[in-house]
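Notebook, bench 3.
Goal today: get a predicted structure for BTG1 protein from Onychorhynchus coronatus so we can plan the truncation constructs. The sequence was checked against the plasmid map this morning, with no discrepancies at the termini. Length recorded as 164 residues. Pasting the sequence as submitted so the record is complete.
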Amino acid sequence: ARSGTGVAMRTEISTAAAFVTRLLRAGGGVSEEQLRCFRERLQEAMREHYKHHWFPLVPSKGSGYRCIRINHKMDPLIGKAARMIGLSHERLFQLLPSELTLWVDPFEVSYRIGEDGSICVLYESPQPGGKAAKQLEGRTSCKEEWRTGRSSPSKSYNMMTVSS
């Protein structure tokens, strides 16, 4: 039984991979050809990793599994894509934030730089079927915040969604 998962998650994966690639580009010293290859490899790795962990009817299900995280340890998917273009873990740590969390969920891609930074939405799409997606308070659409390096005071977010 084919669920069309591959097509469904294309936009989310593309958005997430483009974001990490932009962070690498901002760090400097990586050629456009390397960046293009990195983005393609990262998208392939994410598609493979998420293949059986994508639930459009319950978008929060599997969120932890799909989360891309750098927390003084490199996320394996980013590490794998970087190795394929000849970037070492050491170089990656120089180019990327030491603390980055990227949530890749059906209908939403969001990120946080730093453990107590704001959660920013990169991509958001209404869920099909007429059910309005409930907004999580405290999330802001701050696509460009990473450029300026701004950080807001520590806040706690309730990331759990409860369905009745």
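The chain has one domain: 4-124. Strands lie at 68-71, 99-105, 108-113, 120-124.
Flagging this for group meeting.
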